[in-house]
Amino acid sequence: MKRAAITAVNAWVPEYILTNKELETMVDTSDEWITTRTGIKERHILKGEKGTSDMAYEAIKGLLEKKNIKPEDIECVIVATTTPDMQFPATATIACDKLGIKNALSYDINAACSGFLFALITGSKFIETGMYKKVIVYGGDKMSSIIDYTNRETCIIFGDGGGAVLLEPSEDGNGIVDSILRTDGNGRHYLHQKAGGSLKPASHETIDAREHYVYQEGKTVFKFAVTNMADVCAEIMERNHLTSEDIAWLVPHQANIRIIDATAQRAGVGPEKVMLNIQKYGNTTSGTIPICLWEYQDRLKKGDNLILAAFGGGFSWGSVYLKWSI
User: Fold this and answer.
1) Is residue 212 domain-shared with residue 163, that is, in the same domain?
2) Phi/psi zone of residue 37: left (φ > 0), alpha (ψ -120 to 50 degrees), beta?
3) Quick one: 83 exposed, middle or buried, by C-beta within 10 A (0-12, 13-18, 19+)?
4) Which of 47, 91, 273, 321 could form a disulfide with 84 if both were Cys (CB 3.0 to 4.6 A apart)?
């Protein structure tokens, strides 16, 4: 049976590090307050006139070098992002131009923090149907571009960065086995960016009202995230007759240490099997899961059972079961 397998992974984060100590000088907060509530100690920030495509360029360039693949051999590039360079053209298309990828279908997917999973499964279908043999999926965001650094509820959480995977056909049983992806549009009321879209285009009024930044009702989002991310993990394990002993790694979206702990607990997975790097990068939204895979790749073995899980604005959430293939 042909499956879409991750055959390479690479990530890139900006050089500048914004620590909790520095945030203490910007808003009324403390290192202790941030750490106990989120698990975050620092986050990377993209400085200067650069966008998500620049981070995608770095991650994908390294991926191609790692596999010794020419840009023209790539057939499809999907970028999952909530912070595109501009409304159009697609950030994927801009990144392809910078990379010299000339023969590929390229487009963006926006599913907030669940974006990488949605893009991964979309990309996998091109492989499974035989339409393409080399698909790159990138997830990443320049969250600093839409964060209000006078709002201590949101500015402590988010960072910039992202990662890319190469999908290729596999017939050895490894690759993406199953997925559950869901959305509930009612969640838009609790986590969104008020202005900048067609509903409320940019104006002096929207800028003065600070409506181009992330708006979040933290308690409501936390409650939904804990429940849905944990439930979907348990559901995909049940559906595939997996026990916690069968799982080599849980790869949760890095939003909040308490959400991660709750998801692991529901899956019955101990902390030694949970990928965790929120303390270094914060929430890079679409970027957290590929960055985790990149950081932990040396600890992964071919055939390992991985459960990927995410929850994001919209609301959107999902889980992917894959057998590692590198």
Assistant:
1) no
2) alpha
3) buried
4) 91
- Same-domain pairing of 181 and 162: no
Q: Is 205 exposed, middle or buried (0-12, 13-18, 19+ CB in 10 A)?
A: exposed
Which of 229, 129, 226, 220 minimizes the C-alpha distance to 169? 129
- 248-304 pLDDT, tens per residue? 999 999 999 999 999 999 999 999 999 999 999 999 999 999 999 999 999 999 999
**Residue for token pair 């693949």:** 69
Nearest by Cα to 5 from 134, 178, 168, 136? 168
**Residues recorded for the chain:** 326
155 as an active site residue: the answer is no
Active-site residue (options: 96, 113, 233, 292): 113
**Domain boundary at 143, 173, 203, which?**
173
Active site (annotated) includes residue 292: no
Residue 241: active-site member: no
pLDDT over threshold 90, residue 167: yes
Distance in angstroms (rounded) separating the CA atoms of residues 320 and 106: 23
Note whether 263 and 118 are same-domain residues.
no
> Domain containing 23: what range?
3-173
One domain for residues 88 and 207: no
CATH code for position 210: 3.40.47.10
- Distance (Å, whole) CA 15 – CA 6: 27
Strand partners, 310: 318
Q: Could you say which of 96, 155, 233, 253 is catalytic?
A: 253
For residue 146, the SS3 value is helix
Question: In this model, does residue 138 exceed pLDDT 90?
Answer: yes
Catalytic residue (choose from 20, 110, 283, 305): 283
Same domain, 219 and 235: yes
Among residues 146, 173, 200, the one where a domain terminates is 173
